[in-house]
Queue: 4 jobs
Job 1
Amino acid sequence: MYRTHTCGELRLTDVKTTVTLAGWVQTVRKFGSITFVDLRDRYGITQLLFSEALNGELDANPLGREFVLQVNGSVNERSSKNANIPTGDIEINVVSFKILNKSAVPPFSIQDDTDGGDELRMKYRFLDLRRNIVKKNLELRYAVGRSARNYLHENNFLDIETPFLIKSTPEGARDFVVPSRMNSGQFYALPQSPQTFKQLLMVSGYDRYYQIVKCFRDEDLRADRQPEFTQIDCEMCFVEQEDILQTFEGLVKRIFKDVKNIDYSETIQRMTWEEAMWNYGNDKPDIRFDIAICNLKFPSHTFPTKENQSALIDGASFGVFDDAETVVAIAIPGCSEYTRKQTDELTEWVKRPQIGMKGLVFIKCNADGTFKSSVDKFYNEEKLKAIATAANAKAGDLILILAGAEERTRKAISDLRMYMADKLGLRKPTDFKLLWVLDFPLFEYDEEGNRWVARHHPFTSPKPTQIAEMINNNPVIENAAEYLKHPYANIKANAYDMVLNGNEIGGGSIRIFQRELQEKMFAALGMDAAEQQHKFGFLLGAFEYGAPPHGGIAFGFDRLCSILGGSESIRDFIAFPKNNSGRDVMIDAPSTIDAKQFEELQIKLDLKA
Ligand code: ASP
């Protein structure tokens, strides 16, 4: 037997028992004639004491960091106890030991605050995984997965595997493709998500499906994206949006309870996409703090439902506001006494290329009810007061105003809102606030591709009240660069996102299940009948055989884990992640393949091209 106990379990109650432990040498410390060793395994660290009698043997077989060691001995009470670790009251008085394997000197120290940089730890990920901090993250990941499985199982969901080698139908992101040797010249694609398969399972009558599943997207890697990532993927039939929202509120609340022991009993707030964009400048607002945007001016095509408040700023001959497409303000609580230096710093911050604003206007709402602003020349006290009232500012607040092109300015005010909240400590990682964002636009204009795309995916149903509008209209796709040029630009999707602390953690939709509507949708995206048939003939065909109404959702499992773990980075919660260039630097992938493999695949590689 290699071990009788783990390195994390012995206590004072075990004193005098004879035990065998096996693990890795964390540290070796010599004190005169005796030697202390910290032995580590997955469960903890236990102190070993090698007495003088073993010195000869230790000299013949010196121990080094990360050696794999087996020891036999008795449990003793320690004279100087270590309250920081659960085994800190005892140590093992070693009687005999055996080196099971040696170790090269590790390239970084295997400790919580390691001296290893990112790339080095990635290269030796198997060593990095020995660190307690990384292990804790993987344990949390396992706990989240287990909790989700338990909940879904108890609610009658079936875990059904769907294939990884599928057909390439790039819609959102680029597909990873896999050449087929047996079908020369043809390729599989790795799934971006099991979307069509889970819908087919609904047609098959498996009314509650889930899978914790890998998805693959060949996207340019923005920070903290992985080319392969994991989703908790779910689908249900005979459901409306409300059924889905309730079922998956249950899932997330259960995970909070199981993993964090948090009773999330409050009602989860809901807001429409338009409200989110109006009030927070983005579609995944962090609502742990209630600073909302005051829309002073914006182009009429942006969100057709809102009135401009430009009367408040017009007629003052202030060119910056007059010439801007959009003017937006936020009131920052308790910051009216910001010094010149502080407001200058904020101005510099919004001028950074990532934010891209030309400047920042501020109004101080002084505690005594007076106002002082950077635009006093243009706006008298009365006008400043009117703006402050519109911005919901109280005495003591600092109003920050940005002006510029719509999209950039709205994004900038949203970033500034988050930046100020961080500064004021309003975004505590231990606070959790969930939110549903509903009623997304069905379509979205893709500048890069110069075309209209489905905002969620092309299987998403319009709002029930707008289905007739879609079926009865004959869409004409123009080369529309403006929002309203698409005949369906105002159609809202029966789609929802779950947002946690400013991160989208899940998203889904009620699906189209009628062939006719699905064809309309494909056509609206510019796909002719032949292309529809080639790419999605299987789905259109299936819809003819009794497809039930259905809908679903997928949660970003890695992201959910990282937020619950209080970390910004999903990489920390993936055992073997890729780096920012999509490389696994440990196994050195991707890599070239042999000439023979190319030959078998009948692929000619022209490296000159
Ligand atoms: N397949 C979708 C996604 O990956 C989720 C869903 O609609 O269920 O985002």
Job 2
Amino acid sequence: MDIQNLTIEKIQEGLLAKEFSALELTENALKNIEEKEKDIHAFLNLTATLARNSAKETDGRIARGENLLPLSGVPCSLKDAILVKGAPCTAGSRILENYIAPYDATVVKKMSEAGAIIIGKTNMDEFGMGASTENSSFGPTRNPHDLRRVPGGSSGGSAASVAAGEVTLSLGEDTGGSIRQPASFCGVVGLKPTYGAVSRAGIIALASSLDQVGPFAKTTRDAEILFNVIAGKDPLDSTSIDHTYNLQPTTYNLEGLRIGVPKEYFAKGLDPQVKEVVENAILKFQSAGATIVDIELPNTKYALAAYYIINTSEASANLARYDGVRYGMHKEADNLLSEYLATRGEGLGAEVKRRIMLGTYALSEGYYDAYYVKAQKVRSLLKQDFDSAFLKVDVIMGPTSPVLPFEFGAKTHSPMEMYLVDTYTVPVNLVGLPAISLPAGTANNLPVGLHVIAPAFQEHLLFSVGEMLEHL
Ligand code: GLN
């Protein structure tokens, strides 16, 4: 049995037809992971006991003749920033190496209640800071399509675990592209939902006004099923929003679909090979009856700079809690300040320290208006750009990443070069919109993602577009 190509539907058909039990499927997945991890290193921890218990529950349900739940029997992984009660949760950081989560994140509770089999926690750039998993304290993940190349980041382990067929679904977290960019690099589907659509309770925060949790899957339909399970208002997260989605699989008439193509997303810096694949994908929609509209998002050029001010500012505040007293690593010293210095000095990596310093600077008196407030103003301008674009079009399309999956070490010498990888993904986080990366084809045998952006709470339009692309 090879779970590599099983969708949720196929798994559940197999379970009901008694071709395999959920426990057999789980044991098989665990064995498969053990083999593949030698090459991939997508996982930081396995939650095998939890997985076996959920599998037995599903098998009991089937034996009693009860209906299956939306995720019954489906092997899933979770980015290691998502708390699972009793399991280690490191956020890819040495400082949390020995931290055990005291409760389940709301998304984990929802997935477990929907029958999911949670197999383990996946590798990531430390606290979500990076685009390649090379900033993980525990060694990088390798891209299943080419082991010499990065899987993208920061949720690189999640994307690779799905692409390598280790699990069917994964949850990641996206602050500036960390779901969509690794999805693009690994050739899978990855969705960043509308800000507030999914609860962030029990997620280790990077930048709270940008962070969202979302699904990875091989197919759009599977991503949609997971999204429907995790979406919704949560009293434990005051930023979550009460929005009623239509949970029926949507179909959208291609005839009427208006696709906006911003010239700013095809400017200098885009690898011509990526450009060709993305343009061909957009042309397929056109041949099938969609209308292509040239649009402008003139403030795009300020997005990356504004993002890195807001990201570092919020991160510097969020990461103040890792003081060696409340969570994880603790270094003894003569006085409190020396303890802070020793713990944070040893526990945090170079990129994390860089961002804490940049963010603290941007928020300090005398600089706050010049940096943080100005960056917030850029956010409003970007919002206006998108609002006027969506008067003319239903969705916006472009590349997810300006570059193909790169080789290890190719960008580690220059933080700026690593940041440029986020050019097309960060605008969406700054304005809170939903966006998806869809496998659009390959260049040089490496996956290329098509980035599709929709108005707020139009996730189901994104799923429809994804399904269309799978059939074009
Ligand atoms: N590459 C981006 C960054 O380093 C994305 C981070 C994320 O989405 N978590 O900030």
Job 3
Amino acid sequence: MTNKPHSHAQWSSRIAFMLAAVGSSVGLGNIWKFPYMTGESGGGAFVLVYLVCILLIGLPILMSEWLLGRLGQKNPISTMNRIAGRLKRSKAWVLIGVGGILAAWLILSFYSVIGGWALAYIRYSATASFIGLDGEGVGALFNGLLGSPGLLLLWHSLFMILTIAIVAGGVSGGLERASKILMPALAVLLLVMVGYAATTGSFEAGLDYLFSPDFSKLTGEVALAAMGHAFFTLSLGMGIMMAYGSYLSDDVNIGRTALTVVILDTVIALAAGMAIFPVVFANGLDPAAGPGLIFQTLPLAFGNMSGGVLFGTLFFVLLVFAAWTSAISLLEPIVEWLEEKSPLNRLTSALVAGVATWILGIAALLSLNDWATLTLFGMPIFDLLDYVTSKIMLPLTGLATIVFVGWFMGRDEVRAQLNMNGMAFAWWRFSARFIAPIGVAIVFVYNLFH
Ligand code: PFF
């Protein structure tokens, strides 16, 4: 009994850690990006590769980032500097941290634009704009938003302000408390939506689409998309999880905790798919509609169910919340780094990083309308930002991370950090040294030549 206060402190910090990790990983990637990528890639084959990548590549890399963070006890750049220095390895490993910060900046710029869409949809839903809409109506509502640079700018700015405010003010205590209620609420609401899809949509067709892989659809590009998304959805390859690892206490079992986060993240994504595709098929919509998919299918459901105004509004509020906690985790490492490397204080660093992201976001949102024909490497800016980060930068930094842990760190040190027994550790090490790096490499090389 005497150690009760101590164990309570440990318990609450462990919960705080889980909330931060889940808050970062569960976001627009699960509810917005996963369904539309599945639809663009033709369904089950993408889902299967995604699940394999999550398990064989994502999980060991998540564990690697956490163990590096716990060992280094610093921000990602200093952590890599410190560990590589101690092990007498090249200082070039620091590039993992640098690449991560750059990727975080690029991702947040377009992430905030989509966060803005979700904000706009709170308003549409609360003002009953979905009521009575058919497939064409929801399409028109969405295209109206997309075609208006002014509206997009307004909502993108608001989302960015929300994000900067938390990172600048450090009022994360309240955010943590809110997360404890709002994240489970989001999960419950998603289940309600799955229930709705099961009773009124083409549920079987939806499930079939998600879970019966058509291997003729499995191209190198689909595999790359699925692998890139595994990194994106788990917030890997950005140093974010490494930064969080520095707050992990020694008695936390990294493997078990990582598995919990991975399962939660995956279940939420699959639930989003199960809520959306039955509605797509029941209403003759196009599963390959692209980034607008959830903004066109869910309103159709909300517009036709009883209590849809309330449900819809609540859903988009929770979606914004999930996006917000992820966005905060994207801005945080940039601000931390600025604060350390420049004379700026936290508030100014948050403003500088936030405004730099906001400006890049404006280029991204203009590429959805006025600048649609302006392309770089054959892609509009929005698509380019997504492509370069998810399909190139994250897998590369992730690959470097796991190669470092698998090949350049001592076996015993890694084993002590992971606290795993014989067989489990042997398996883990095998996947860290061979399966994960070779998997990433194959997908990369294949795409280079096709
Ligand atoms: N994992 C988040 C999502 O799925 O929405 C997005 C994200 C957050 C990606 C943080 C990367 C990151 F570092």
Job 4
Amino acid sequence: MADIDQNRHPFLDGLSKHRGSPPTVIVIFGASGDLTARKLVPAIYNLGYDNLLPADFRLVGFGRREIPDDAFRTMARDAVKEFSRRELNEDIWDKVGRSTFYTAGGYDDAAAFDRLKKRIEGLEKDLGRKLQSLFYISTPPSVFEPILQNLGRSGLAARHLGTRQMSKVVIEKPFGRDLESARRLNQVISGVFREDQVYRIDHYLGKETVQDLLVQRFANSIFEPLMNRRYVDCVQITVAEDIGVGSRGSYYEQSGATRDMIQNHTMQLLSLMAMEPPVSLDPESIRDEKVKLLKAVEPLNLSPEHGDVVRAQYADGLVSGQAVPGYTRESSVESESNTETYAALRVSINNWRWAGVPFYLRSGKRMARRVSEIAIIFKRPPGSLFSDSEQFHLAQNSLAFQIQPDEGSTVVLNAKIPGLETRTQPVRMHFRYSTTFGSNTPEAYERLVLDAMVGDSTLFIRGDETEASWKLITPLHEFWSSVGRRGMETYAGGSWGPLAAERLLWENGHEWRRP
Ligand code: BG6
């Protein structure tokens, strides 16, 4: 009997047979940065482990610091050791490590990009074949533009255009900081690359459970008929973290919860949850539906009285019994900071399916625990056969998709308590990924790096999608900058957010589900 590798996820056996990437060189801009060490290099290593890297594969780090190839290999190996979901296997690392190189240069230094081009041509010459170049921009956003311009000017962007080895570019978030800068960035990109060469990342789309949303919604006939204003009372999307801003204070001061989490990750969950069924699973059909949904979102009511938005900052508090400092006491944070670490939005979607159903979105740092979920709360049954009382303890039916941790879904039903009397109690039906499929699933970045290499853009954001979501969020920032700290709430670190966010739901007769 063949050995089963417990480290290998079953989905890979089907995958490797029909997905192949052309020979590829991945060039990471921002090679000594945090994301490279924590996510990108471990993702590449794990793809190597699963035999999903092309036979001819090269990795080139690019950054401002002078680092010899050998030293960069050691940095990459250390990153795998510290951050990979699997332990470092020397044989596998050996192959990836031998394919790893480094080129130093400034992002606005044209000569450095000419050197990079020569290096890629040299790698091709050694291998005796053409390589696809995948340029991964993982730098601070201030240098996105010079990198893109230099990729264009040096001819790197246009290498092997029209063939399987054509160049591609992956762009990390944040994609702009408002509608205007996102538009400007899209213009710069389209001046250099064709849209089918561009992969805008939102790593939430690489999460297994986010991809599963489409399957849950459209491969099961029991849920979809209920997903509309006739049966749904409200939808709640929570992306909560228990961590604070840690050492990222200076980044976060420029960003805040709406730019860091709501405009991208939370809006992606909203569009996948609420969009119409696409005509097919091809990338454009799915992205067309997401854009259509985002365009149907009504502008937010920003009025301080009964408006649609609550913002807040965490104050001192307790997380897992440990005292934690409030946001304005974190390092690199202004003591009078106007940056929100929590935001809750009430979103209305003006289409036939959802008109009148509030979608509540919330995201925050230093909340009670790390949890992301989408909960669909259904209307109560009509009539009063069973009405909530001491005898009949009833809950509204709900269907919750747990994105992380504890991935799965839960349905809440009312059931009769066994016995001679008729008494009821809410009960939960759970599906758990880990119980059914095991827990060693690939990380989001593995999936996304692989998809970009094979040219599947389904899980990446199209230019018009980013603009549609900035269109909703930008007026909010303009309003906040005009009012300073007015309306900024606080919440204790380790809590579920400010009281004002509870009130936002009470106004409609709803309350937040405790995930
Ligand atoms: C990033 C944000 O995009 O997502 C971080 O910049 C946040 O602030 C992170 O912590 C959360 O990602 P995950 O995958 O841990 O939920």
